[in-house]
Amino acid sequence: MTAEHNTYSNLFKLLPPYLLMFEMENLPDYSRFHLKINPFTQLSSEGIQNVEEVHVSQSVDSRIAEAIANVMEGASIAINLVGDLGTGKTQRLKGVQSVIENAGGASLYLKVDSSDIIRTTLDMFRDFQPVQPQGFFSSLKSRRKDTYVLTRENYDSSELGDALKENMSMYSLSCLLLDEMENIMLASDKDLILFFEMLRQFISAMSSGCLFIAASTHEGFNRMQELFPAFVVRFHYQLRSEGLSDEEAVDLARKRLEKERKPGKESLNPVYPFEESAIQLANDMAKGNPRILLRVLQIVLSSAACDELVDLIDDRYVSSIIRTPSSVDEYIARVPKDLRDVIALIAKHYDGGPVSYIQLSKDTKSTPTQVYMKLEELVSMGLLEERKGKYQVIDRVRMLLEEEHTQEK
Hints:
Elements: H1 3-14, E1 19-20, H2 59-72, E2 77-83, H3 89-102, E3 106-111, H4 117-125, H5 136-139, H6 157-168, E4 174-179, H7 189-204, E5 210-216, H8 218-227, H9 229-232, E6 237-241, H10 246-259, H11 276-286, H12 290-305, H13 315-320, E7 322-323, H14 328-333, H15 340-349, E8 355-356, H16 357-364, H17 368-380, E9 384-387, E10 390-393, H18 395-408
Parallel strand pairs: 2-5, 2-6, 3-4, 4-5
Antiparallel strand pairs: 1-7, 8-10, 9-10
Helix pairs in contact: 1-11, 2-3, 6-7, 10-11, 11-12, 16-17
């Protein structure tokens, strides 16, 4: 990393109250850079075909691959995968699912998108048929097909855990993958005891050839560990989904660009139209978070594709699109559209904050995970600040809010 890059990295760290802003007077023309589309628009790996082509392998992937190999040889393994939102947990779980299915095994991937333990438990059983016609599992079904009768009153954690184990053992190779487990942690302590006792029972008696992975944020895992240490200690591995190094960030950008490069338009610079210094600076802004890195690269490339004078994107260009807002409305208008709802709510309804992501999720009727991801993106882009778990506008915008209040008086 050059001294010049370090200068710009340090500049970015000092930049708030400045903001990453861009204007698009013209429609972006990506063909100038020999690209079919903006390769960074798809932030989530879930919508990408052949996602393995753009995956950047890290040390955690080797550990997961080792676990899969052991399970294929008959072992039963439980893994807790922990990492910030946007660090590739979902992509890795989807990769595990693909490997198990390609090997002829059965897989169940479940995104836990609520704190409802009844709904989540039933979702875990949805693809299984009763092991025994008169067994406990079949008693969960009513006379209507695919309708289950399960309540907190008849929620028997031990029997449910055994039923889950029996259904997974129908297959010589299987995996149960629970994603975004931080959402279930918002349930009441009483509900959580029922749910995690069921999972503890399942892990304690897992059949051979079964892989169980539970993925969560650090906050979700810490609460899980605090409330249910007897459950957490039963995991064979606790793996961390880490951020990207600068080298890995460049590799991710290269793979994304190559996937959307026009045939016959390969460049001597594999990350054209970027220079590596620009990607490294963007990664510094994103603090190594892959999802936020993609967001920054998306914005920068969109801006460059609108400007016919831009032939190459370096760290100076990334720095040049920083602006200071002159009003609160301008501040909100310049935020990417899909992030605008939460920042408008903080600025207008909560007078700039601070406010927790839990409260914002209630206000927007979105899942806590979705809101948290938006807030973290905004923090990494210098548009919000996070202090003691709560979010607020940056100092410059707070000054604008105070000026508006003064004018209203």
